[in-house]
Amino acid sequence: MIAMRKVTTCLLTLVISTLLSTSVFAQKTLTGQITDQEDGKPLPGATVKAGEIRGTTTDANGRFTLRNISDNIAALEISYIGYQSVKLDAANTSSEKPLDIKLQKSTFQADEVIVNATRVTDKTGMAYTNVNAEALNKQNLGQDLPVLLNFTPSLVSTSDAGGGVGYTGIRIRGTDATRINVTVNGIPYNDAESQGVFWVNMPDIASSVSSIQIQRGVGTSTNGAGAFGATVNISTNQFRKEAYAERNNSYGSFNTFKNTIKIGSGLVKDKFTFDARLSRVSSDGYVDRASSELHSYYLSGAYFGGKSFVRVNVFSGKEKTYQSWNGVPEAKLRGDREGILAYIDRNGLDEKDADNLINADNRTYNSYTYKNEVDNYRQDHYQVVTSHTLNNNLTLNLNGFLVRGLGYYEQYRKNDDFSSYNLPNIISGNDTISSTDLIRRRWLDNYFYGSTFSLDYNSFKKLTASVGGGYNYYDGDHYGEIIWARNAGNTENEQRYYFNKGIKQDFNIYGKLYYQFTEKLNAFGDLQYRRVSHKIDGMDNDLITFNFDQSYSFVNPKAGITYQIAPQSSVYASYSMGNKEPNRDDFTASTTRLFPKSERLNNVEAGFRMQKGIWGISANYYLMHYKNQLVLTGQINDVGNSIRVNVPKSYRTGIELEGAIAFNSRLKWNANATFSQNKIADFTEYIVNYDTGDYDLINHGKSDISFSPNVIAGSQFTYSPQKNLEFALLTKYVGKQYLDNTSNETRKLDAYFTNDIRMTWTIKPSWAKEITFNFLLNNVFSERYESNGYTYGYIAGETLTQENFYFPQAGRNFLVGLNFHF
Prior knowledge:
Layout (H helix, E strand, L loop, with lengths): L1 H20 L5 E10 L10 E4 L3 E4 L5 E8 L4 E5 L6 E4 L9 E5 L6 H7 L10 E6 H7 L5 H4 L6 E5 L8 E5 L7 E5 L2 E2 L22 E6 L13 E6 L8 E9 L3 E9 L7 E12 L8 E13 L3 E15 L5 E2 H5 L2 H11 L3 H9 L14 E16 L4 E24 L8 E3 L2 E3 L1 E24 L4 E23 L9 E22 L4 E19 L5 E22 L2 E12 L3 H5 L10 E14 L2 E22 L5 E21 L4 E23 L4 E11 L6 E12 L2 E10 L2 E2 L9 E2 L2 E12 L6 E9 L7 E11 L2 E10 L4 E9 L1
Parallel strand pairs: 1-7, 11-14, 34-42
Antiparallel strand pairs: 1-4, 2-3, 2-5, 5-6, 8-13, 9-10, 11-12, 13-14, 15-16, 15-44, 16-17, 17-18, 18-19, 19-21, 20-43, 21-22, 22-25, 23-24, 25-26, 26-27, 27-28, 28-29, 29-30, 30-31, 31-32, 32-33, 33-34, 34-35, 34-36, 36-37, 37-40, 38-39, 40-41, 41-44, 42-43
């Protein structure tokens, strides 16, 4: 409740400060028209930005109006897709005469043309957030991209190792990574089978990012996995005319290092550019032995012709991460010695494991002690991205890609049965040896390739439209090997004990358009057809034989309207439908009685955006209504693995608030908050009863969806005492989250409230373009919190046992960076 009051106070302060501050500064109104420099035609939809908060787009005649512009805003930035951007001196621009701004076409902006095909605008009627490279660079000191995006609306980041390096993840509006569509340069990134996103396979990708757009909800049609909660659209492509070189180094708590080298040729012979990055990130992790050794590179070459553009990207990530997947048992986390001893007894821990559990720190305990209990994986990406201007109105974007993944995770196993590995027992004299200690590796060897395209039409009047789509093919081998056994018998080194192949094909085609009915009313329409097939053949690690071949056809309509009620104020509404196929694990863990169905989401978004003087605010209402959402209910399959089951009705609904205010040229505040309800209409919990060999059922009625906090809030105060120095206070509040769908108060993550302090100082010596010093102090008040966890329960001996596990996050910790730009 205390943290909740803090959030409420912040929001009230934001509103009151905004209202009281609007008349403090001298203000003026700027008007003008933006046209094509060559033929003078108006450019509707061009962006006019005044400072960090204020902005608008031009109407069908290329005209714009910006009212109540504060005198402390120095620059006016004008941009339009496919044209060179222009920056004007706003402080010396008169409001008495309309501005006549002419933009010049540029092939060098082709990267933006390609990105635009999969992004939304203020005229789409959907909720979104844009994050630029400048914002990321202030935080980019070694932590993974999910942590860098932590302060965007409705987003919660997690870290297995507790320090933001290694295995990290995000949830948006409570939805997990398997329901978040991620693209890199418009090309799908999600793992085709699990549909999850493994950011650890793209170390330091943030150092190559030019911009990110996060669409919340179903979003617009894009390529790859179905967006069932959000879309994260990453662009690494950026045109840089001048040659450059950078050397970025950082160090921090838990022996965290980041070393990055970046170089670029600039524009060569008015046609070519080359860019490269080499990175290394390492960390011991907050959790015991949760170390990470991450390497990556990025290479990009681009050709700019008169009407054609071609870019080739090659990037790769290599990770070796010590496993910390099991979390900390609740008794250990709470320091409950009696509970720890009971946990040891009921789980049969041997002396070494029991000693580790008892003597490790309560928050940094890691159950793994084998020195090579690692995840070792490499992922290579090859992209060819092209754009061709067919005429003044038509642009064709055609892309191809290949992703190659290969790696394993290694495990030490104590006293496993030979039968679990399809091996015979060992007969030694009169003795039969049926189990042994061993080391195994579980491999994933895959290829993922395909193509995406879009044909974009711009009438430069009332209509813009696009036809696009893509096809991709996934071929993945899953297999396990025994590399050592204490009692080997006839077992060979690297003996394979299971193998299965997954084949997945995904085709989609969509059409979308924007139409400007009047100067104030705009409509958006989008229709996508998607065809998915998924085959799994062979034996899995539980020695169960599969032969699945499932196909799905989905039609996903979307539509929205936007109405401009004033020059810098608009309201909007949209409806979207999304359909999603089950994941690989839903198939492999399923039973004949509980075979998974596809899920459907009906998504309504409505809201308003307003900008005035030195402030801007927005509010977005959303309703995400699911049919047959797959959730964990406690049911298990024949080998004891948990299975997700379709529940007929569930929903997420809430309101997202955002506000920004520039008190003056030095002090700014951005804040956001989400208040929501996330419910399953009628939830029944299944508890395995080993006494009866069946389930005990408990009906919870309407219950909360797991990992879905009702309140998420973020705040960023930035203060610049001088132009080259900035201080920031970063605050995050996340409400309580339940570990399962029962709304049981004994199975939850407590709410947490963290504060970080950031400093950025830039100098420009004669021998370098600039040197930047960054300092980040995370979790200033050492808040004790857990960002993730899991639970399971069973009945044995007429007693219910509920096992809760948590992933504690680091207390106060720091990162410091020194960046050289040449």
